[in-house]
Amino acid sequence: MILLKLFLFFLKGGLFAIGGAYSFLPLLEKEMVENCHWLTKEEFLDVLAVVKVFPGAISIKYATYAGYKLGGIPGIVCANLGNLLAPVILVLAASVFYIKYKNVPAVKRAFSVIELVIFSMIIAVAFQSIEPNRLMNLKSLLIIMVSFALFVYTKIDPAVMLIGAGIAGIFLIK
After folding, report:
1. Is residue 62 classed exposed, middle or buried when 0-12, 13-18 and 19+ CB atoms within 10 A define those classes?
2. Residue-by-residue DSSP string for 54-109
3. Where are the domains of the chain?
4. How many Cα atoms sit within 13 Å of 174 on the Cβ side?
5. pLDDT tens across 38-87, in order?
6. CB distance 38 to 65 below 8 Å
């Protein structure tokens, strides 16, 4: 029964992860933490911190983690099949639709509003992923501002930024 629940859960997530993995996180958190009680809030945030370090889609990493925790290897397979099935079907359908209707004003407006909603959800997840008191620390604010500026105004690879941040955290920041 848990294998079917994992499959359906991640199928649902895949259906509503419009705009990428970060739009998927609020839905994922609400379902996994509040509704299903598969993870605690702390565990969800811990997993979020860990999955950000590894390459690849966040949804696949969450499906793998939850699948393994709840169903072992078969859980991983079921969760990831559910996770991947919806986007494959939706992207195929959307490709056909978009090629045909991409210049229709109503379609352009719909995607414009969806982008704003996704932006707000990404900001909400960002604020939930860090302790609020850390945002009141001058050192933390400086790190955030420098990182933001490097990301927006330079061509430094984000992976290099993350490796540099890890090294700075180990050796420089006390």
Report:
1. buried
2. SSS-HHHHHHHHHHHHHHHHHHHHHHHHHHHHHHHHHHHHHHHHHHHHTT-HHHHH
3. 2-129, 133-174
4. 2
5. 989 888 988 888 877 787 788 888 899 999 999 999 999 999 999 999 88
6. no
Q: Which helix (H) or strand (E) holds 110?
A: helix 105-128
Name residues of the chain where pLDDT drops below 70.
18-23, 173-174
Report yes or no on whether pTM surpasses 0.70: no
123: its two tokens: 């900001």
Contact 103, 113 (CB under 8 A): no
Question: Helix 21-29 crosses helix 58-101 at what angle (to 10 degrees)?
Answer: 120
Residue environment code for 73-93, b if the CB has 16+ CB neighbours within 10 A, otherwise e: eebbbbbbbbbbebbeeeeee
Q: Which residue has the tokens 């991947």?
A: 84
